[in-house]
């Protein structure tokens, strides 16, 4: 059913997804309406294959139905749905119309709509996880690891509260995202794998199946095994809600990590900081009125997607609640879940693209570090004073920072001139004195830890 | 740009909106991507008309540009956007391509993107409010008023905590929704009318305009007046966020009223209650496996839309925050706001359709009321006892309810047989005794209040 | 009932509110458990006064009950509640225990719990609005107005996307918050005034009242008038939900404005920017390990309160839904609403305190502005080129910014040296040339608009 | 610092937690302000023990500091905090005041505040999980298992959409909650165990530690091992956010399962259904005006807690974002996390109490099942028709349900009388005919599956 993209109302369709061939190719089978139909037909076919194996129907009938699934058209299902107001029965009717009278009774036999829908959804999201979400996130992780390692020795000022704290390296700052994203990739992977189907009938007690088989739990397992799924331990008309809740939580919290990274990169591009830059093409326009603008719009877009999609989690929590053997009040809301998958994959791909071309400026990072004129040395100064026996070292050091600020002198100068501290300073080794004097060497194990983190995640995620 | 509806990912597009001709006709100009372009071109044209009036450019140039807006194609804008990564400059370039070299400089002159975007958005949402949202809600309100008045004397048991309380009428129960929806219609109408545009340049200080005019605040007022809008009192690159926040709050809280009504109607359709029914067509299917099912699926769908869209409010609150003269982190998220409009209008139309055909069953309501065998009379009994001087009337009445429950006797029987109460009962008038005996007349002013509420809202909303 | 503050679990109690004498004094009557009791007793007394006026009971009895309300102890109510599991009946029993047998029947006569609770809550929140919330916000507004006016001519670089845009003044940046906060003060004031009580009995149909009076709607109006309230237009066991929903929305969206201001102030304190500073006392410690740190912790705290309390709005939306004549599933959740009031007032007071002492550094603002070496002049340059007939002025100017960036030359220098632009530049007036050369004068009407905004809000809020 | 409970503003403090001795005893060490201090002192002591082991200070000094932690008073810390506005430095100063000058330098040596705070929080929440949350949830799980097994054969009508579907047993309905809660217990246990501490200094690069040791990563591991914790793989000033995000998600989604169970129990107590009842004490009052009311207020309270606390998850997602090596904007908001623990434990205890005394009424369940007069048999009828070759069995059966409804006859009667179906019915076995006639035996494997589910979870959770 053709429509014009510009008549769509969802930005995903007209702007971020449906007009993006690569995304459609990557995600279409799992998130589009077309994909939904295909998945539900796959479930119908899996059931009938198992029925044949068990002798409930002949193999010929199973083959006939299986083959017929390929001929069902979404247009027809939609039209039938409009007539009878029941989307699964509509699909069943259309499938039945494609098979012989002998085969008709075995279409959807013993099944309730949500045997098909919940199982198909679990299958789609599990496939999306394996085929699209995790690979996309791994691509990004790989980019981040390379970048972190490349910049592991690039001196940068560490910032807490937006204030200069003590030095780190830029690679170390990125390593934190390598690790957090790594953790989320595992969470997404596990949550995707934990999605479960159900073939237990209208209220979950396998009522109808007992008309034909003695071991309906085994039957359920066989059908789901056809699709690479495990059964929900318990079910009513629907599978247990929590695996899906955990899955969307994993997606949403992954978006959160990307949003945090985006925020950091945005701020490092502030005119006053300019430590990094998004690549800007020669033809790109930053502002319709201010020709000089180079805006971090990709990072802003990533933050924006998080703002748009994180609150969707509330919907998923609301859908945890379904009365008795289920109410249908999750019918519309659950249809929006694939949008969260699209949001995450589109965002991760964008992040990967811009981080892959991120421009870091070590010279500027050094200039920025020098801005605070050794003030960071107040930390090692205090700690060394304490270690050499000063009873109130933090306070002593703190007062010197006020003096440095008031006089405009660099902290090390003030420190080494402080008369009352001479007995302690005299005990400092040369290396310790150097460290207070040249705080840029006070980076701890930033470089080494960057390596360890990258190595650890490479091992955990790729092996 | 044609696509297949089934390749879309948003349920609004493939299922609830873009495939629904009436909704598209009603809302298209305000919520679709096509509508956005048209609105933004209308702003560009309004500016140039004012520039001509002021002599900044000639009237001929203004007319040329105005006429050219009709020729700009979304396809071209999209393509240009892909090249330069700036959606407003893309639109400007396409509009400039349609005019003479003389006119070119006056396209978008003195404007920043968000002069156009924010103003166009305010215009679209204000129009949507007047032309689509409020009329749709008024249709529903009219249906509810008629239904409430029709059922104002239909005896129904009042329920609190899901327990029988004391009697009301079905119309009275509906009147509460007449009033709550009435209040929300006013809230939506006011919030829509309070949306504001801005023509104040890149940081809100009218910097560029000062190059040409002495009274930029007046200029802003004139441009916006062309579009029936008022200016945001202050602005940065963007208008003040709060009017839009209030607007979405009004929409979302209206959805909440509909969801509550839907919940009530769902529960009144429980098999054990069956006081009302959604109309069910002869061909409609309730369950793919249980042929006897008549499910309140429309009401469930309404509840489901509320679950899907209420949490969007969190996004809007997040977008209240924009750094300094603005950051662009609301760029993607704000594009989703029209979806909330679609959700509300689609839901209200559905509600109107099913409430218009709602089947109420007075006989069943009476049977249900009789279920509790006069237990509700414990309330008037207690109050009359108290009024006639019983020092502990509530406790006395409460104990009789336990006795009635234990013995299975109707409460009135137990009450009139209670020896220690005879001195008080003796003082009851005949009417008061009757009322305890026949609690169905204990409906207070349910009918009268229904009328008053309906009258009040008819007056407030239609005059 | 004494407990130790450190055994509390709520940070409001042990850290932000209950240990803060001024806040307790300001808000206690409206937000504490003690305040709730007092308000509910006031409702009981108001009812009995009206009953006496109407002759249902004697004036002496009304006076007796009124006087007795002062003697009811929260400890006793709590104990009785633990016995009978009904908090309003517990209060009624304790009040009855304080009066004569003749008066007992008239305590709580014709009332249901939520006549008392909803009315008392409306009264408390309305009072809190008038006596505490609005005055606190007005104090802050006054501080912001003074600050904006003081700094109205202080040159500052305007920033969009964190990038230098074009110049404004610091006062102008603040004026935007003057206006947004002003709008929220009106919203809070209106929403507080729109809160409504209800005296309509167990299901809203005034069933019990009809036993005694002919005009229960008038009775309801009289009782509520005693408390300065108006009745909910419709009610079930409870008042219409929406006025309270609007009220909390007003509070939460006000917090959003404060959070945005806090974010701006945080970022202006970044070491690299340092345009403003929170006052820091001589004894204050910024970090337990980094003695040099001066963190914007108050602004961070304000942002943090917004993060903690904005999502509470979701709870309020959930509580919009109450089945039939009500279910009690808002019982616990609604008790948390006063916390939002506390959060807003505490935050506004903190904001007022720090903005009142905010240190702005005009010299640093100028240094920061100079950082971008006239790049902002690309905007007026482009617009003037366009106005003087350049057919592609934006693109011409944009390319010069790339050249300036590549060569490290200031933009004005590059601009005036551009050969192909000479025909246009020749037409510039001296003033226009100056403006491109010295972009610090390109502030539009920043100063004047600051004045107008401050004046407007002073007029709207204080008159 | 004593205060009066009634001056508190948090319902947790004045109503649900701080006045509940058992809860305080169970949770106090993990959730109260007092508990926080104790945990942070424990971290300080752990560090100094490791320093002694490594020879950085003497064992005597470590012992002295360790012993001194017991003497630090919250009152003093609070007072010092008010002076210097830094809660960790305040604690450090108070601890230093308790030790000799020799020991002073080793208090908090090399540590940043959040080494202490994040580690202490991880320790508290992990302890709370092991000692309070999981045991409480296991108690409830045990109660549910016993109840499910007791009622595994109690016939009950299954309901979907609030409509009678096909029969199950009450135990089977409960088994679904046994399984869902079981899954959440594992999720909470795992998330609690995955919480991690950090001892890596002000920006996470172990800068200060490198002044003293060569292997700061090993040092971190040793300190955390003292507390039974593992280190965050990466850290900045703070540990990675995600383990805490996952933990609160586990708590909140567990609340969701309880809310769903509460909803089901509420609805089964509707007057018209009355299949179960909350125990009601002889003295309990249901309504202040309606003495006959027995309200499901405990279940309503549980739903209400979910509404109050589920949205807190949004705060936790917001706190995922912290700029650069951290901003402090989670400072206040993170203090509220223990409230979620309190909410879950209080709710689970309440649920356990009422489910332990839940009254189920098998006779009423049978009466309710009979209400729909065999309509459920339409499902097996359709399926058997299909199996015996009817080409359009669902439609045939569906039409009979309309006939049954129209004529008021029981479905089985209509079915067996249908002439066109006789060829198929003739093929039914006696058992199959019986099943259509007496649909109460059409419960599938409800009883057996109940047993399997209970057994599975008993095995997984207790072994």
Q: Quickly give the structural class of chain A.
A: mainly alpha
Query: How does the major sheet of chain A shape up?
Result: 2 strands, antiparallel
* Total individual domains of chain A: 3
**Which architecture of the largest domain in chain A does the CATH hierarchy give at level 2?**
Up-down Bundle
Succession of helices and strands of chain A: EHHHHHHHEEHEHEHEHHHHEHHHHHHH
Greatest interface by residues involved: B-C, 99 and 100 residues
Which value, in Å, is the CA radius of gyration of chain A?
30 Å
Task: Specify the helix fraction band of chain A.
Answer: 55-70%
How much is the average pLDDT of chain A?
Answer: 94
Q: Terminal Cα separation of chain A, in Å?
A: 44 Å
DSSP helix count of chain A? Answer: 21
Uncertain parts of chain A: none
| Binned strand content of chain A | 5-15%
Chain oligomer state: homotetramer
At the fourth level of CATH, the homologous superfamily of the largest domain in chain A is Fumarase/aspartase (Central domain)
CATH fold call of the largest domain in chain A: Fumarase C, Chain A, domain 2
E-strand count of chain A:
7
Strand order of the largest sheet of chain A: 2-3
Reading off the top of the CATH hierarchy, the class of the largest domain in chain A is best stated as Mainly Alpha
What does this structure look like?
Four copies of one chain form a homotetramer. The first copy, chain A, has 21 helices and seven strands. In chain A, a hairpin with a 2-residue loop joins β2 (155-160) and β3 (163-169). Chain A folds into three domains: 31-106, Orthogonal Bundle (Fumarase C, Chain B, domain 1); 113-281 and 292-367, Fumarase/aspartase (Central domain) (Fumarase C, Chain A, domain 2, Up-down Bundle), CATH 1.20.200.10; 372-428. Chain A is mostly helical. Chain A is elongated. In chain A, the strands form three sheets. Chain A has a two-stranded antiparallel ribbon. Chains in contact: A-B, A-C, A-D, B-C, B-D, C-D. At the A-B interface, β1, α1, α2, α3 and α5 of A face β1, α1, α2, α3 and α5 of B.
């Amino acid at each position: 059913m053709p429509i014009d993209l510009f008549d769509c109302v969802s930005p995903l369709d007209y702007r971020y997804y449906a007009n993006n061939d690569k995304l459609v190719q990557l995600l279409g089978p799992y998130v589009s309406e077309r994909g939904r139909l295909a998945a539900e037909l796959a479930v119908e076919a899996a059931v009938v294959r198992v029925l044949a194996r068990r002798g409930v129907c002949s193999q010929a009938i199973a083959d006939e139905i299986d083959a017929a699934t390929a001929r069902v058209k979404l247009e027809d299902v939609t039209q039938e749905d409009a007539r009878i107001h029941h989307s699964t029965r509509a699909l069943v009717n259309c499938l039945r119309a494609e098979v012989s009278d002998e085969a008709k009774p075995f279409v959807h036999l013993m099944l309730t709509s949500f045997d098909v829908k919940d199982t198909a959804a679990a299958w789609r999201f599990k496939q999306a996880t394996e085929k699209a979400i995790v690979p996309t996130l791994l691509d990004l992780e790989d980019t981040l690891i390379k970048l972190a390692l490349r910049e592991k020795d690039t001196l940068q000022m560490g910032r807490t509260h937006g204030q200069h704290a003590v030095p780190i390296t830029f690679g170390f700052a990125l390593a934190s995202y390598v690790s957090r994203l790594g953790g989320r990739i595992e969470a997404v992977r596990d949550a995707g794998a934990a999605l479960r189907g159900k073939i237990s009938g209208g209220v979950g007690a396998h009522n109808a199946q007992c008309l034909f088989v003695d071991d309906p739990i085994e039957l359920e397992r066989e059908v789901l095994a056809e699709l690479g799924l495990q059964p929900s331990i318990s079910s009513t008309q629907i599978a247990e809600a929590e695996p899906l809740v955990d899955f969307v939580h994993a997606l949403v919290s992954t978006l959160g990590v990307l949003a945090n990274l985006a925020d950091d990169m945005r701020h490092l591009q502030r005119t006053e900081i300019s430590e990094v830059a998004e690549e800007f093409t020669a033809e790109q326009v930053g502002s319709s009125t201010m020709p000089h603008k180079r805006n971090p719009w990709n990072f802003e877009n990533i933050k924006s997607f998080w703002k748009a999609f994180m609150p969707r989690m509330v919907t998923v929590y609301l859908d945890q609640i379904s009365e008795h053997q289920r109410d249908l009040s999750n019918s519309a809301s659950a249809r929006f879940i694939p949008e969260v998958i699209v949001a995450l994959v589109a965002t991760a791909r964008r992040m990967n693209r811009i981080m892959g071309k991120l421009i870091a400026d070590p010279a500027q990072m050094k200039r920025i570090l020098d801005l605070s004129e050794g003030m960071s040395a107040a930390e090692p100064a205090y700690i060394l004073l304490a270690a050499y026996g000063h009873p109130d070292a933090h306070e002593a050091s703190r007062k010197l920072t006020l003096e440095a600020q008031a006089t405009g002198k660099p902290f090390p100068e003030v420190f080494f001139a402080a008369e009352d501290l001479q007995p302690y300073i005299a005990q400092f080794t040369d290396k310790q004195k150097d460290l207070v004097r040249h705080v840029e060497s006070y980076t701890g194990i930033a470089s080494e830890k960057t390596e360890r983190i990258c190595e650890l995640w490479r091992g955990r995620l790729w092996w």
